[in-house]
Write a structure and sequence with these properties.
218 residues, mainly beta, Metallo-beta-lactamase, Chain A, eight-stranded mixed sheet, 3 helices
């Protein structure tokens, strides 16, 4: 399985068979230009959106024909069962920013979890619904989502084999959120890749959690 990070919370997952899944595509130039990551031009078979904000749900700008998966519940698309777990975009049960959906699915024998704009530490019920995770995409910037400290807590709750941080301050993101180093501070299990893609094989997973830092592709 290949994982490509476009920027913000947007990823492309390509299976060994060539199936392409885009997660949380952003609207390039949204919020008055504060989100300056480039336009996504890859064609997908399936597109997931965790919630209806412009930095996570821009399916209209994507090329070609694809199926959109959104909302809580289970749905099989292109032979892959997707599970949406309902959570909140804030610590106040959605009263500030509404709901958010965590997606869990399996590709090439790897269980993938994308937290979207999770705004709180997980409950035991939510953890049970998520289940075991091999690869976790987790927001770490705070303000609109869990902050670096809460992200560390959530990572400890989920216990993935591979963790890919997302939704943090970069030169392409003008949001008032924290930079990646605030999350990485004090952590030793970090692998910084000078690229936007990584290949993950279920037969070569690390024995303990590894944080993989990707460069944004766009």
């Amino acid at each position: 399985m290949k994982i490509k990070w476009y920027g913000h919370a947007a990823f492309l997952i390509t299976s060994d068979q060539g199936l392409k899944i885009i997660l949380d595509p952003y609207e390039s130039g949204a919020y008055g230009g504060a989100l300056a990551y480039g336009k996504i031009t890859d064609q997908a078979d399936v597109v997931l959106t965790s919630h209806d904000h412009a930095d996570h749900n821009d399916t209209k700008s994507l090329p070609g024909a694809f199926q959109v998966v959104k909302g809580p519940g289970s749905k099989e698309v292109k032979g892959i069962p997707f599970k949406g777990v309902s959570v909140y975009h804030d610590p106040s049960k959605g009263s500030e920013r509404g709901s958010n959906v965590i997606f869990v699915f399996t590709v090439d024998g790897l269980r993938v979890c994308h937290l979207g704009d999770l705004g709180h530490v997980l409950s035991e019920k939510e953890l049970g619904e998520i289940g075991p995770v091999d690869v976790l995409m987790i927001p770490v910037g705070g303000h609109f989502t869990i902050d670096p400290k809460q992200a560390t807590t959530v990572a400890g709750q989920i216990k993935p084999k591979v963790l890919i941080p997302m939704h943090y301050k970069t030169e392409k993101c003008g949001f008032p959120i924290a930079p990646l180093d605030d999350f990485l501070k004090g952590k030793t299990n970090v692998k910084r890749l000078a690229q936007s893609e990584v290949t993950i094989d279920r037969t070569h997973l690390p024995s303990q959690m590894e944080i993989i830092v990707l460069n944004h592709a766009l």
